[in-house]
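Possible regression after last week's pipeline update?

I re-ran a chain I had predicted before the update to compare outputs. Posting the input and the new output here so someone can diff against the archived version. Not blocking, just want to make sure nothing changed silently.
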Amino acid sequence: NNKVKDIIPMYNQFLAEAVQYHGHQLIDVYSDTKSPSEFSNNYFHIDEVHLGPKFITKLQNIII
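New output (post-update):
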């Protein structure tokens, strides 16, 4: 997991650049769901992978 946590921000940066290049915007859920240790903050997730309904309000604020 420690090796993967270093790859996620790099991957997200490349993804954001590609999305922007094609005229779209990236909804960054990683920044809002990570803890200071860069793993899940366990607040917005319903399990180790999937976001739960608590993230809907946060998502609405990002979109609007």
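Follow-up from reviewer: compared with the archived run. The helical segments are 2-21, 30-33, 55-63. Marking as no regression found.
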